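Weekly sync notes, structure subgroup
Attendees: PM, AL, DS (notes)

Item 1: joint prediction request from the bench team. They want all two components modeled as one assembly rather than separately. Inputs as received:
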Amino acid sequence: MSAQYPDDLFYTKDHEWARIEDRDGTKVATIGVTRFAVEQLGDVTQVDLPKEGESVKQAEVFGSVESVKAVSDLFAPLTGKVVKVNSPLSDSPEYVNEDPYDEGWMIQVAVSNAKELDALLDAEAYQAFLREQAE
Amino acid sequence: MVDFGGWEMPVSYPTGILEEHRATRTAIGLFDVCHMGEVHFLGAGAAATVQRLVTNDVARLENGRAFYTVACLPSGGIVDDLIVYRLQPDHYVAVVNASNIDKDVDWFQEHRGAGCDIQDRSESTGLIAFQGPAALQTLQPLTSFPLERLRTFSIATDVTIGGLPAWIARTGYTGEDGFEIFCAAQDAAPLWEKLVDAAGKVGGKPVGLGARDTLRLEARLPLYGNDLSDETTPLEAGLGWVVKLDGEDFIGRDALRAQAATGVARKLTGFVMTERGIARHGYPIHEADGAAVGAVTSGSPAPTLNQNVGLGYVPTRLSATGTKLWIDCRGKRVAAEVVSGPFYKRAKRGES
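Output from the run, pasted for the record:
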């Protein structure tokens, strides 16, 4: 069981997370949805993602996730080109529920503008945001 | 929790919709349906009033028996779908949808005949559904009433469950064998606890609104407000089997006779998605040449079948089994195919 909101991730108010790695001078962001999102969605039955090579833009829709009850848009935390897609999710969407921060990751993006990270929340700020929303 | 007609109800309990769905198909699902309405028709004129209000043939109901039916407007549009139980020749009970209770009671009162008293006992009545292949064997130890003798669409009154007075009906909304248990509102919580304990021992679980919807959709049981409304008729909805056009008169019969004579222009049609996509309520339905021909009224994954299924009204010519349809899933056309009958049908008792 991974942490509810790991400290090493960046978060959006739309409940996505991004894990940043440096690869040969390029920042690569692995992107998924948070534990809170998963709890709200319930059982995920389908995940629709962009293809490798496509571009995503910060705060814009990059895909959707279908649960038994509803469909929800996914919003990109950062702008960049998709370098990898978690293709096992198409057959095993339940990974999103079971392990949202690891096996349930969705896409990896080569970040085109690292300054955009400033717009994201750290784990503490994200949890403060969740508490605020719950009130 | 969501607000459902003024009742706080869970979409799912902590185990989640898929697990609740599976538990109901393999063991037992428990449903707190206290929100549903119970309307009593009492007196020598009860049968005549019920007959005026519903499309099915009240005369064929014996004591302790029930039928599924609809109440219609003069236009043939559906006021509500309901189950009518005959307890005594002068006592009928209609179980109606929670969101329609006030509307229904007003409509029933407006068309009440002589010698009939109509009482809305929804507030004082609790209702728990106990559904699934293990329902009978699990409920039996809690009551001295021999459940095996209770036929489908029958009701036994004056029984006790776990020491609490109750009525037991062999009815439900899941496509499984099972029971609906009526009790006094104040007994609902203690009875619920007893039933949850008993069901838990065989893998049964409380089920929220989410799985209630996927279970009924797999069994192709319509939902009022989605698949049925005052603008759809029972003939369009595929409920012709509960409409007795040649029996006693009822409100809406003339309109339905006329519609039966000309044939319905559209039909509530079941489909399975043949491409990747999930149909949702309100998504447009297109035919092969691209024109929009209708809309999805219910749609979701069918967990037992591992398919995505739905219902929607389409022109009658497009309702034949095997017809290709396209569902507009948020701007993307996804192929579907018309299927007939329930998406899921349980094995009959004795089969496996």
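Discussion: The mean pLDDT of chain A is 95.
Action: AL to compare against the crosslinking data before next sync.
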